[in-house]
Prior knowledge:
single chain; mainly beta; 7-stranded mixed β-sheet; 0% helix
Amino acid sequence: xxxxxxxxxxxxxxxxxxxxxxxxxxxxxxxxxxxxxxxxxxxxxxxxxxxxxxxxxxxxxxxxxxxxxxxxxxxxxxxxxxxxxxxxxxxxxxxxxxxxxxxxxxxxxxxxxxxxx
Length: 117
């Protein structure tokens, strides 16, 4: 059974930091490009960041550039998102997404991030 389990969300103050994790199981993690996608209240899905299978290339939405850092540990089958300088507009449910090399898409259940003073 494929599972993507996010953790690390919570309440942060503006300017604060959070580190999200996504633990993967049930598929070959090394064979998947990984992404973080978020959904703010009342809005659609927004891609935030992506990373290639070996971590060699990373990609960021304009809203995340300079503040967020995506990384992965293939030995631990875990994806990370370090979020610094958080803003209220970063408030959203953050989802871990895997795009397997054979075309399958897998999603986690999401973790809530709330940025508020």
